[in-house]
């Protein structure tokens, strides 16, 4: 088993935000689930062949 720890950098997040605003990069969303269906989102992630990010919403 391996683990990875990610540390946020305010400067990097700001630069990423600018790239998103300018349309230089974009985020592809595979599917969206309400937080109450996190289990279904996890199952979707485990199924493989996803095309983008899986998003959990708070509503």
Automatic annotation (TrEMBL):
Gene3D superfamilies given in the database record: Medium-chain alcohol dehydrogenases, catalytic domain, NAD(P)-binding Rossmann-like Domain
The protein's name in its UniProt record: NADPH:quinone reductase-like Zn-dependent oxidoreductase
Organism this protein belongs to: [Curtobacterium] plantarum
